[in-house]
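Hey team,

Sharing the Transmembrane protein run so nobody has to redo it. Sequence (623 residues) first:
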Amino acid sequence: MVVPFDSTPTRRAPCGQGLALALLNLAFATVVAVSTYYLNLLANTHVGLGLNVETFTSNQFNIPVNVLLQGSVTFPLATALPLNATLSLSTLLYKSCSKKDVACASAFLPETNHLWSAVAKTFANISKFEQPRFQDPTQVITIQHINNLAGWNKPTVQFSIDGHDMAITCMVRRASFYLASSTASSAVIDSIAFCSQRKFDPKWICENQVATDAPSHAIQVSRGKASYLGVAPRHDIYMNPGFLATFMGGPLGAVRLGPVPAIDEFEGGILQIMAPWDIVPFGDCATLNPSTGLGWLMQMAGFVTMFWKSDALMLTNSIVLWLMTLYLVLLQVLFLRHSVICSVPVYMAKNVVGLVILFVGFWGNTNLQTLTTYLHQTPSFNLGYYIYCGPAQLASIVGIMTGTLIQMWFNPRLVTQTWLLLVFSLVNWFLVFALEAFVFPGMSSSVPGPCGLATSTGCLQCTAIKRNYYLSAVASSGVVLVAIGCVYLVSLKQRKTSQVVPSAHSVLTYLRVPDLRSTVTSLEGCLQRNNAVSDDVGIDAGILLAKNMLQVSDAVLTRTSNVQYELIYRLIPTAFLKRFYSSTVGSMLVVHIEKRALTHVSSYKYLHEMGIGGGDGLSGYFV
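Structure output:
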């Protein structure tokens, strides 16, 4: 017995659920192509990012710490201090210990005390020094110092005298300098201690903030010899990146001194940041956590150039994905406009192109997360949409593949609950985009890491990337599994109330199946009552995609592999050219349709014999 559908004929919407999902997938593919294009502009080339300003409260930079070396020692200025010819301030700058290697730090303490004592002794050579008590040989100076021992260090010290309210703070920095009377080609690079007077801080850890007009003295300790280079106002060497300062008052005369560009790498060389920073930054340790090594902040400015290495941008793949999706959308518009079934997941579930693109996307996600994390942590660049290109690319690939993976699970049956595919595709897109753009970047802090490039002066890694780069795959897979479960549940519910198709229906006889449930997950939306007072049932033409067949006119059905020729045929402007193209392509095997019913008659026809574009259009249903 045939169960009637309804008491009134079913009206067709202007477009079916299949076309809605196809257009959504085309939107996703367009986002993939556009975001990949912009990412390709950044990849494997030097990109000038402009001025980057890092402060204690915004756009923060944590000094990477392997193990903290903190010491305090008293030093009588009258003490003779012979220097080993191998000692220099560069030792403080480049010393590296393994993470949490306290023994290594302790072993370096005597050498550190010795070098800072040599700096203290050099105060005596400064004429018109602001703090002459630090030149008095009868005084005993307390030396408090700190170092991060990560191989590209920020050694800092506070010199103080008991009962005296002023102190001297110094930081060692790499600099290039030459005599003003010589040419720039004579410049040498060395590690210099830059020292200024500062109010004594009994709670001092690493702070060296002074007034911008405070005199800053440059002291060199190299190969066992300490020398005074001169003095310049702090504003010449702070928040003035790339500036060539002139230091005066030293025994050598006027000295030109400028910064040495630093090269910091992230994640083993995936990202390099090159910049002439301020010669001397400000440091602050109010939030320093010795157990995590985070909270030693720097305040400085630099003109940054970025080099982002990426081998997984998929520029070619994104073009292939877009063209393939566009082709499937055209099929949907021309042949399956009213169908509940979407050609995109059905077609992509039968080849590996989408899976390869999805795999490559997640495989290269470490590179994308490194870029996104860095741009997220340095908002002063104000790069706008670039920060969202990586998340948008991955989320859109996942959005396209959500429906495809669900369809793969149910192959060879077609998933006809297209509205579920559409909803879960959107859910997965928003989920992955939110994770990659907003959640994961904020979870990372920069800590010392292994070096991947010999040219890098500092090597950093983002703490969360190693555990986050695959989490989007896990989360989106969970969404896909939930969607598969929903398809099963909805199918089970609809099976209890589903309509019956006559066994003599032309689609059933063509497919040689007694029941459409062996071909689709549900009959809901696939059937149309063609007459209010009869049991004449129309079956969605998209169901034949299960057999790689497609109705191309009201007279014939052909294989989907032939459809590209029919698309081109439709675009040819004149009848003569259409006939010529048809003859060139040759004949194709087609199945005949009579009065919207599939027949068992097949033959070979040329394109111009198929009635393409003629008649009253495709009904979208077979009887």
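Residues 506-622 form one domain.

Ping me if you want the raw files.
A.
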